[in-house]
């Protein structure tokens, strides 16, 4: 099932990563996945019952997390 969000909502949603980039429907090559993917960092955020879960700890993919004391 594809993510079905109003275009106006998709325009204002942004990834919670520091770049705050825009999101696109789908995950990787699967445009029908119930995810929104960041156009900058590549993290995929689940959409559950039509509600985007924009929490970094819920995201899949993207850059490897930086360990405490590094970076």
Number of extended strands: 4
Mean pLDDT: 87
Strand order of the largest sheet: 1-2-3-4
| Helix percentage range | under 10%
Largest sheet: 4 strands, antiparallel
Shape: globular
Which structural category do the helix and sheet elements fall into? mainly beta
Q: What are the secondary-structure elements, in order, as H or E?
A: HEEEE
CA radius of gyration is 12 Å
Low-confidence stretches: none
Fraction in beta strands: 15-25%
Measured distance between first and last alpha carbons: 39 Å
**What is the tally of helical segments?**
1
Care to describe what's here?
The protein is mostly beta strands and 71 residues long. The chain has a domain at 7-51. It is built from one helix and four strands; from the N terminus they run αββββ. It has a four-stranded antiparallel β-sheet with strand order 1-2-3-4, with no helix packed on it. A hairpin with a 2-residue loop joins strand 3 and strand 4. The protein is globular and about 40 Å long. The mean pLDDT is 87.
